[in-house]
Amino acid sequence: MKKLLSLLMCGLLLFGCGDKYDDSALRNDLNDLENRVAKLEELCKQMNTNISSLQKIVEALQDNLSISKVEQISDGYIIHFSDGSTATIKNGKNSEDAPIIGVKKDTDGIYYWTLDGEWLTDEKGNKVKAQGTDGKDGVDGEDGTNGKDGITPQLKIENGRWMLSMDNGKTWTDIGQATGADGTDGEDGVDGKDGTNGIFKSVTEDNDNVYFTLEDDSVITIPKSDNSKFAIAFDTTDIAILNGGESKTISYTITDATKNTVVKAIAQDGWKVKVDATSTDKGTITITAPNPIVESEILVFANDGSYRTVMVSLNCMQGQINIADNSINATSAGGTQEIKLTTNLDYTIEIPEDAQSWLSLAPETRALREDTIVFEVTANEGMQRYTTVALKDEQGKILQTIIFRQLGTCTEVHVETKGELENELAGYDYANIESLKITGVLNDVDFLFIYRMMPNLKNLDIAEVNITALPIQAFYKSTNVENLILPNTLITIGEEMFYQSKLKTVVIPANATTIGNSAFEQCASLISIDIPANVETIGTAVFWGCSSLTTVTFEKGSQLKTIGGGSSYYGAFSYCTALTSIEIPASVETIGASAFKGCSKLATVTFEKESQLKTIGGGYSEPNYYGVFSDCTALTSIEIPASVETIEAAAFKGCSSLATVTFENGSQLKTIGGGSYSSGAFSDCTALTSIEIPASVETIEAAAFKDCSSLTSIEIPASVETIKASAFKGCSSLATVTFENGSQLKTIEGGYPSSGTFADCTALTSIEIPASVETIEAAAFKGCSSLATVTFEKGSQLKTIGGGGSSYYGAFGQLKNLMTVDMSACTQVKTIGESAFDGDSELRLFKIGTETPPTCGRDAFSGINPYSVLKVPSGCADAYKAKSGWNNFASITGLDE
């Protein structure tokens, strides 16, 4: 109190002083004291509430009550007892200076009050009971004695001191300092510490009990009632959504759920809600805001299928995140930057990777949802730099952005006449200049001077140099410049301009339209690149081998048409081994061969909506291959835009982690490419388990899915006319092959050696060949060791089953488990090729519907089962018996027999 009076007197005296006197410090002291007293008074209210609640908990023990529900509120808990009564526990903040009120059971089994761990006694030295005592029974004819209530302590703060009453406020005892101690001789006292609720340390629960841990670490345990064990909990009960029409999904967990548990939700005021149960005790609730957003609540009910029902209210509101100033200009010296904001949304802070070397969150940044974010900006000895920090919600959507610009320390010169840069720098120690900004005009002489005479130049800003093209190979194998801002007037970046240079960052101007071949090839230190919207062409090998390039961003509204590639390894971004993700602009029509080949960390490839892409390029020259995404071993999934018409050879070859390939609705894909016997569009995609080929596809080329060893099933669309050799060769898990009704397939190709369409599909057990097929070529099903049944659709147009060369190349040769071939629907067969069914030692039944025995090549049925049966059209048995090759069957009878 002495401190307060001293400050007030000083304030009155100073009101009469001159205008120049600064009394802000005094005012701040007064405000601080008032705030501290207000906080302590609020704390006192919380402690009295908690003291009453503690007594209620002790009485509940005495009365054998159980707890039916623990309800979490914003500043504590409401405890619901089985008799319908409640107790409220308020949260507090730990401090050493507040009194610690507690209870402790003595040896007589009764709970007594404690103060700072010691028994609290009355004026006679007796311990003070925290629970009432039972009354005594009366003797016959007389009333019994009433029980006595337990005594409830009360607290208050007076003159900065804690005061305690044990007689409902009639008398008060001083029990210690609450605010700062008084000063002496006019000096301020030392501030006291914040108070604590001084009663409860924590409230926890399990399936059977609720545990109240007091400040002295003693624990009071009260059992739960049966109904309380059934409860529903959410990761949040406050739903704040930024924009109308947007949704937020929260998770729920049910305690003591049964198999009959049901969760329902009711929304109002235009809000919508959907419940998705993922199991009996878990699920999600998706809430969609109306437009405009109004405050409301959603009621969620959970029932166990019997008598237990719980209800929780979810508060729905307009999300807000307001930043007082989201454009920050930092000095070159760096330091801390505080960002003030107000929000009711959860958020995370994302600093771009290329800015993390100079911008970071300071350790003193306050907890999520408070109003200050503190950033640490390092000193900048180079050019001006900038970045945009994003505040994102839990779904990754950007809520707000903060733009940081930091000034640099650099030498600035203006060159009025081309070729005069050296003269302009004559008065400087130019050999040791690290940062330089040039304005005016430059020519090849000037750039040569920069290249040869400024070995320590790291940062170069030529944004205000008036030039449309740089001199040929101006920075070819440059060893000095690391950070470069190119001229605003630049239109073309020429071929090999920065080949093998030391560039780390480069700013390409908005006017640029073309980036020439190999412009940034093997810039091993280049970290990120932003491609302006006006760039229409990125040539071959532009960023080839940029092994540190992690981020490639295309400006919104990009007009890019072509991402270059070639018939060799030199794709635009090939072997950018640090690149993890990329979004291809909608404007791109062609991605050339090898464009992203060997980008071993590229895990995510997306295409902007309304993509115009026609061709995903590729190629091969055995044993080399040049697919756009070949050997992108981290790529796990991709959706192909509807506009794509051709996926060329080896496009995704060797993408060993690619498990999912989908096609956008309305796909116009015509060709899934391939080449030779190993360079198919998806060959060696060993993680690919399934793929739905679009209905528009007409051709599946050679080796298209070769050695996709995890592919389990495939449906061939009716539009496919040709499946070329080795298309599915080596798909060792392929158990099911189906053909869409109305199939137009003409040829199932094959070749030598063992290059059939389905060769070595060792899990395939049966197949039905579409009616449209006319030719099955050599080795088509070679090595399908589990194939037991082959049938042909009614109305079959089959003419030829191929073979030749030797027994290894028959369409169905050497299939040791093949038992049944039903060609009864095949009425037009002309030829059964050499060794077509050679070595099928388990072949028991063969049916054919052609009346005139087809011509059999050498060994067509050599080595078949000695008890095999051939079924032929009625009346044709003798003709087959007389025909070479067919007489290998032990029995030849009519189909009707």
Automatic annotation (TrEMBL):
Residue ranges the record marks as coiled coil: 23-64
Domain of life: Bacteria
Residue stretches making up the DUF4988 domain: 26-139, 144-223
Pfam families: DUF4988 (PF16378), LRR_5 (PF13306)
InterPro entries: BACON, DUF4988, Ig-like_fold, LRR_5, LRR_dom_sf, Surface_bspA-like
Keyword entries, A-Z: Coiled coil
CDD domains: BACON
Residue ranges of the region described as Disordered: 127-153
Protein name as it appears in the record: DUF4988 domain-containing protein
Natural source organism: Alistipes putredinis DSM 17216
